[in-house]
Design a protein that fits this description.
Pfam families: DDE_Tnp_1_6 (PF13751), DUF772 (PF05598). The protein has about 450 residues and is of the alpha+beta class. The protein has 15 helices and 13 strands. Strands 1, 4, 5, 6, 7 and 8 form a six-stranded mixed β-sheet that branches. The protein has a five-stranded antiparallel β-sheet with strand order 9-10-11-12-13, with no helix packed on it. A hairpin with a 4-residue loop joins β9 (about 280-285) and β10. α1 (about 5-20) packs across α2 and α1 (about 5-20) crosses α14. The model has no long low-confidence stretch (mean pLDDT about 85).
Length: about 450
């Protein structure tokens, strides 16, 4: 069978797969062979055979990611030229996409020394980086204890049950797709997924940025890279980002500070556990200290790093103040002194919390949900993004870019700008001749006389 002679044929073919909601390359070739309109679009004759499905997969791997990025930028530029993009407000969200690998086929990771060094003359391929255990010892010990408790809880006396496996990205990986990560979506079973992150314009729902991320990390950790790519595309179109909308999964003190430094208003709800005020303690911004109800001062002492890597500020009072305080039995009954812990980004957190409580903050939350969630629903159910047909992080990124290009193309083709139905023109007042002006004066003087004549007696 003939191959893909020109790059436009390949990109037309894969875009047809996205528009026709086809995930498999084999089904895509079979579907195109039965459609005369698609054959005409691809430049094939009726009796000309389409390429093998494996040719499509190999051609996808040959093209670098920069080519797919260039195609996305070209379509996005057309959307900007047609007026579909406002540019100042963006809604950000992410959703897991099932990887092309089975969770049942995952294997355990090995220690770095157990794999052995890879010889230069050996024909065997080197072991992937994902097959090596990189988690700290204390995390592995906690996972083993959790697995032991889970097995003891599920065991029933006298029943033969298979031992449950505790699958984690710290101890297991997929040999078929080492870049896929084990993740859990609320309400669904655990699976190997990729994470699709989107930035959608609030004007007409055009996708402005898309990227493939690893599914084992929090959404807030992917925001800096997403913001960098989004700003690059906006600067290329001479647009400026002013407001960013996201859900509470992107709430992070570092993200709040990053957006404020770039002059972007972050409409991101803070976590429910955050409290702008500490009951019984008043904060003084000038001295950076807290005062309790008894009048004792809790000064700033040091910085600390939390378990999740976030920086914290530690405040505590002196031992002599707490030991002599009459409220010690109720304030710190089992400690020598009172200690408070606050995040390093407490000021950005406070400003974000105040925006969240405002009426506009509530409205922005509804705008974010009504903007990006329908786009994800369309991509997952109508554009073939429900499952990956490729393997590897680079292949997943290419597939997401093609899906976003197909979505924006359909937006562009369906867009009909509002046209003005009628046009009113202000014509200049005509210049009257001397006879016309005299006749006009005579009509004005005779009009009351005719009205009197017609009045009944």
């Amino acid at each position: 069978m003939s191959g893909l002679a020109r790059p436009p044929q390949f990109f037309k073919l894969v875009l047809v797969g996205r528009l026709e909601n086809l995930v498999s390359d084999r089904r895509l070739v079979e579907h195109c062979a039965l459609r005369l309109d698609i054959l005409y679009l691809l430049g094939y004759e009726v009796d000309e055979e389409l390429p093998w499905h494996s040719t499509v997969s190999r051609t996808r791997q040959l093209f670098p990611t920069a080519v797919f990025e260039r195609l996305f930028d070209h379509v996005f530029a057309q959307c900007v030229a047609r007026g579909l993009v406002a540019g100042d407000t963006q809604a950000v969200d992410s959703a897991p996409v099932k990887a092309n690998a089975a969770l049942e086929a995952v294997v355990e990771k090995q220690a770095a020394g157990a794999l052995g060094p890879h010889r230069a003359g050996s024909s065997a391929p080197p072991a992937p980086a994902a097959s090596v255990v990189t988690a700290p010892v204390h995390q592995l010990r906690n996972l083993a204890a959790h697995q032991a408790r889970q097995g003891a809880h599920s065991s029933v006396p006298g029943a033969q049950q298979p031992k449950a496996r505790l699958l984690s990205n710290k101890t297991h990986y997929s040999p078929a797709d080492p870049d896929a990560r084990i993740s859990v979506k609320p309400g669904k079973a655990r699976a190997l997924n990729y994470l699709c992150s989107l930035a959608v314009d609030t004007a007409h729902g055009v996708i402005r940025h898309v990227q493939a991320d690893f599914a084992d990390r929090r959404d807030s950790l992917h925001l800096p890279r997403l913001l960098t790519g989004l700003q690059r595309r906006l600067r290329a179109q001479e647009l400026r980002l002013r407001e960013l909308l996201a859900d509470a999964g992107y709430a992070n003190g570092a993200n709040y500070a990053l957006l404020e430094r770039q002059g972007i208003t972050a409409w991101i709800p803070v976590f429910g556990q955050y409290k702008p005020e500490i009951a019984g303690f008043a904060y003084d911004a000038q001295t950076d200290a807290y005062a309790c109800t008894a009048g004792k001062i809790l000064s700033f002492r040091k910085y600390d790093v939390a378990a999740d890597g976030g920086w914290r500020k530690i405040y505590w009072a002196t031992c002599s103040d707490c030991q002599q305080c009459p409220l010690k039995s109720t304030c710190v009954p089992g400690a020598k002194r009172k200690q408070l812990t606050r995040t390093l980004y407490d000021a950005p957190y406070r400003r974000a919390w105040q925006r969240q409580q405002s009426r506009r903050g509530q409205r922005m939350r509804r705008v974010q949900q009504s903007t990006v969630e329908p786009v994800f629903g369309n991509l997952l159910h109508h554009y073939g993004l429900r499952r990956m047909n490729v393997r590897g992080h680079a292949g997943a990124h290419k597939t997401m870019l093609l899906t976003a290009v197909a979505y924006n193309l359909k937006k562009l083709l369906r867009y009909r700008p509002k046209r003005q139905l009628s046009l009113a023109l202000a014509l200049p007042r005509p210049i009257l001749t001397a006879n016309a002006r005299a006749g006009q004066r005579n009509r004005r003087t005779k009009a009351p006389t005719r009205a009197l004549r017609k009045r009944p007696c």
